[in-house]
Amino acid sequence: MSEPIYFRSVRELAEGLEKREFSSLELTELYLERSQELDVPPFDLPNEPREDHDGKLATMITIATDHALEAARVADKELAAGNRRSILHGIPYGVKDILDTTGIRTTWGSRIFKD
Please, what is the angle between helix 24-38 and helix 65-80, to 10°? Predict the structure, then answer.
């Protein structure tokens, strides 16, 4: 039995994309599903630290699902055309909530900036 794809290294994921074992869209959908299994996004910033998250991680404030899926579709088209920008091209990733992102909520981990 092979290990789940989400345990593969970035290099292994890049090789899988290059060999077309899977698409960026498939990979992105898998990671989005995995984040729903393990995390409780989107969660509101609490007034006080919470201990109980029903056994989930509570590490992600916002998941930009539509943005991620569209970026994966674009990456798949570019990769199919032979336009590989870097080893990371087509691999989904998370961005810490301290980077200002256009069109995506950025809270800097503070209730002051929750909206």
Answer: 160
CA-to-CA distance for 20 and 15, rounded, in angstroms?
Answer: 8
> How many C-beta atoms lie closer than 10 Å to residue 81's C-beta?
8
In terms of C-beta density within 10 A (0-12 exposed, 13-18 middle, 19 or more buried), how is residue 17 classed?
buried
Q: In the chain, where are the structural domains located?
A: 5-113
The mean per-residue pLDDT over the stretch 4-28 comes to 94
CA distance 28 to 44: 24
CA distance 40 to 46: 13
Asked if residue 1 has pLDDT above 60, the reply is: no
Give the model's pLDDT for residue 77. Answer: 98
